[in-house]
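Dear support,

Our group has been running a series of protein-ligand predictions, and this particular one with protoporphyrin IX containing FE is the one our PI (initials K.S.) wants archived with full inputs and outputs. We had some confusion internally about which version of the output was final, so please treat the block below as the authoritative record. The input we submitted was:
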Amino acid sequence: MVVDAGLGQFGDLLFESALVIYVFAMILHAVEHALLRRTGAEEESAARVPVAAGATAGTAGMSGTSGTSGLSSEGAAAAADLEDTTEPPAPTRRPRSRAERFGRTGVSLTVLGFALHLAMLVVRGFAAQRVPWGNMYEFTAAISLVAVGAWLVVLRRRPELRRLGAFVLLPVIVLMFLAGTVLYTQTAPVVPALRSYWLAIHVSAAVIASGILLLAGVASVLYLLRRVHENDPSKLTWTSRLPAADVLDRVAYRATAIAFPIWTFAVITGAIWAEAAWGRYWGWDPKETTAFIAWIVYACYLHARSTAGWRGPRAAAVNVVGFAVMIFNLFFVNLVVTGLHSYAGVG
Amino acid sequence: MTSTLQAPPGEAGPPPSRPSRARQALALARNTWRGLTSMRTALILLFLLAVAALPGALLPQRTPSPNAVDDYLTQNPTLGPVFDDLGLFDVFATPWFAAIYLLLFVSLIGCLVPRSFEHVRGLRAEPVSVPRSLARLPHHARSTSGDDPDAVVASARKRLRGWKVAVRSEPGGVRTLSAEKGALREVGNLVFHLSLVALLGGIAVGKLFGYEGQVIVMADGSEFCNAGIYAYDSFRPGLQVDGTGLDPFCMVVDDFRATFRPDGQPDSFDAAVRYQDTDAVERGDTAWAPHDLAVNDPLRVDGERVYLLGHGYAPRFTVTFPNGEQRVGLIQWRPVDQATLLSEGATKIDPPGVTDEAERRRSQLAITGLFAPTSSGGGLVTSVFPALNDPEVAVDVLRGDLGLDSGRAQSIFEVDRNMVEQGRLVRVARENVKPGGEIALDNGTRIRFDGVENWVSLQVSHDPAQTAVLIAAIALLGGLTLSLTVRRRRFWVRASPAEPSTTGGRTVVSLGGLARTDRAGYGEEFGRLAAELAPPHPDAGEQGRERPDPDVPAQDEREDDDGR
Ligand code: HEM
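Confirmed final output from the archive:
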């Protein structure tokens, strides 16, 4: 097993560049978000007239921006209601506002970061001559890559969700920062127990599911915040610039509905691998246990979505819990608990 | 759909009149059953299951790691025993955990069986008739056609191949068509839930009729036969396994090879074994089938799997007694440091030809201490590398009473400390020796360190239901994928003869669509269908009809209409 150290270092360079570019992209999206808010406030003080809900909806451009104190809560709620069936109105009428320019640049940078990020994993794989998720550093990097990739897919299909950019990139950046500092390991081959094609199958599935679930988790958190605001427009006014709660809820649901079967597949292939490697398909190893808990929590989420009285915020809260369990599984179980999965190779 | 399965809350109270006891009991039973099989209960039980499993992740568990539990108990003398009483170190075997999943599965069956019947009935039923006002539906479109209503409906029918279709007539020469698609979603949902039941059943059978045994075998041509519990160092039988009637296959471990990377990380483990399956053993064959036993690659023989779990070293000592008689001591020592395979152990030897018990208890020998596969050298021997590059033992030789007859169980890796403390087992030498080296004792006994053998730790597992569990898991995944990807949707056409004043055609075509689940994408499909079945007529302008219903965007559906 040859390990190409030079190539490995090049991979690290790519990783750092991708991280820095994501940070810039996040800043641009944050500026976009702030500008949207400012324009909202300006327009509101300019208008000053307490418009009835219907009228607000008519001037679609402003309805979404007026969630602040000036409007009655019904107005805001009605506007939000309308938004959930129509496309969220463009932030302002002016074509290519400054906010939009910032947002678009943010997206371009995200794409660039994604390309470097992808290149990093490819290089890393070539350097170690195996799939590039054999330790926690690579694993975390791969999850972040999937999360960004999933985000770009969402953006392509629903460009109006662009204003979520900063919120999606924030957890990605935190994960990558932890990966690059705490979890960093040099390129190396994996121990014999991991040398199996199941590494490629089982771990890829886990990585893809985790990345998509990250997106779902972010959407559910934002949904909950936005709901607080929709119920009481004086609270969390910054969320008035987010897409309507219903839109966020649907993003979360769809991401989870895609990721859940993939996660199920990851758990099943894990069991198949365990049968070959450890002598039993299931043994309540800490990692297995936590994967099971996460699976059950996501099953709860899907159930809650079809249970009267549990749709909305409760289901979203379950989804957030689900993601918390995934994160717990990634960090706590790998780093603190010792089990059969303790090959994380942190050091 | 689901509403019929959900007990409305607050329905459990007894009726106001005074019914007979039996009827009261019946009502109570019915309400309990309804409550148990409601979605809300299922949700709560699922959540409880997740919460109940939490200690299994947070605390060490007896099943995979008994030593960690002992450590935890010594470190937490107050809280530990309380946790222990609650079963928190063996969560998955506790009655309360079982209670939760059994209730959940009762609820599951109670919910899913009626739902299956309902679904089968639904499959046979005709698609529902066309709503009066199609324009109220989330997806709708309207156009005119030059064909007559019959032709319009016929072409729609052709286009909707694969949909379940019903054609009806309404007064005034109006023809309608109702179409439905996506019944597979419900099938997927049922398959998924029923597979869960099958999965649990398979796991239970495995727990009842399976077993797991572990044994250490010297990799020097030693033989192991699956003849009974006694052949194992440790054995975990299923509840219905008494250790008789195991498949008596046999195997011989000829050799073991481990390779390591320069930094000491293991690179590969291989054991060269030969085996005879049960048939061959019973026929008395002499031929053995060779097999290379490696990590990730168990030997599957008869209904059993043999795994290579671990390995270690066994130093071989030859003791030459003053009378010239020799005894060989060869027993596994256990690794104390997995990274360097520094090992410890105690090789115990009975003097030959001593018949007097008292004399024997004065002259038993134990060679105990550390073994380094690659010695650091120097006075304080430790290991610097896990491979056998420069082996050395650092041992004490003890003589006296090993306490083997005391009736107390003793570890094969240690001498009995009590004997040492009572002065009945006394150290007579302490030396570091390399292979070929000798230790001479005061009475003329010589102990030679001959060399090192490998031992392997094997696990034999038997689970008759394993394949069934795998099949259930695959069905589960298939069902889940179906149920989360298939959309249930309806499509309606109403073709009415046009008023003479209508421009553009003889028939007014109205279309309507409804997605019955909140999956995305029906808008696009509806748009495509509408463009084909009710194309914008020529004088409607160049824009055509990309979006049949501008007030509803193509991407999204409202929440499903199920269950409300
Ligand atoms: C072992 C426990 C259970 C697990 C892991 C589980 C998991 C799931 C999952 C992941 C889904 C979403 C997939 C889909 O829509 O088909 C689902 C849906 C569903 N489950 Fe369960 N479930 C369990 C028990 C139950 C029980 C006890 C009931 C009945 C009370 C039930 C009734 C349903 C129904 C009706 C749906 C379909 C909801 C819809 O139409 O969208 N499940 N379940």
